[in-house]
Amino acid sequence: MEFLETLYNEVIGFLGISQALEILRSGDYSTFTTYDGIVSLIYPIIPLLLILELILGFIYKKPQAKVYKVNFLIYIFNRFVGRFIAIAMVALCIGLFQQYAPFQTTMTWYWFIYGYIVWELGHFVYHYLGHKVRLFWCLHSTHHAPEDMNLSVTHAHFFLEAPYADTIRTTVCILLGVQPEMLFLIMFIDGTYGAFIHIGENILKNGRLGFLNKIILTPSHHRVHHAKNPLYMDTNFCNLLNIWDKVFKTYQEEQHHIQIEYGITREMDSGNFLDVYFGEIVALAKDVWNAPGIGNKFRYLLMPPGWNHTGNHKTAKVARSAYLESAKAN
Ligand SMILES: [Zn+2]
Ligand SMILES: [Zn+2]
Prior knowledge:
Layout: H1 2-15, H2 18-26, H3 35-42, H4 45-60, H5 65-97, H6 109-132, H7 134-144, H8 161-175, H9 180-196, H10 212-215, H11 219-225, H12 243-247, H13 273-290, H14 293-302, H15 316-329
The chain binds zinc ion (2 copies).
One zinc ion binds near residues 130, 131, 140, 144 and 225.
């Protein structure tokens, strides 16, 4: 019976409905109009959409089962290992760095906008490094392994990625004066929206969200980010406000004539948990081992994925330049 109870609690936890159930049980429905009440209603949206998407997948007979299976395994694995380390890192960064902030923001709408722009900067830094430093790519590549886009990809992360991401994002925010309460509010919005942008074509065929595509980062932009097409690789690093992609020139819109190919360029088995989770680490270890000289060994750790000590680089930058050259010639 204890096992069934644990299973029940896990399912309720995954669906994000424990808070809402508590309010329903208490009988005090007015709680739904408070901040906590509203949050309790927003939490279940993404998990419920994920299930709807899965059902639609069965109806349309799209071969996504592999992606869901591996991402489910990753969810279970991270559920027990990764989350606690990330929470500890956030608390640690706040405690360490808050004293060095030149000023402190308050809970007002204009500081909220400021806080969100700062958060996006932290997100850009973490995400950019996750793509451009091979050691960090080992943490991030699990998220890019799926060859299909759907809401289960939201859960595809290496367990050390959340602590690494939250350390950078929290540090940037706290040093720039974002108060912790504001930070947690932004984290909640960012987490929910960051999950939503992985919505699959079964539910949302066109991910551009109309005119919003011009203003914010939409599922369409994030589909581009997950693509391995030469024009698309290493673009759109932001999450909701894509100002930093525009500032740092990594902004890329979806092109009608280019069919998105999801996944990473390495030969891999995206249905194999071990390959999705540890494949990049094994590949990096091999390159470091085989590299001549200590300098080259270090360069493999720090240079972008695809860098080669022989000078025959296969980085995203090289692929994109070659594509743009050939497009110009045609
Ligand atoms: Zn990425
Ligand atoms: Zn993603």
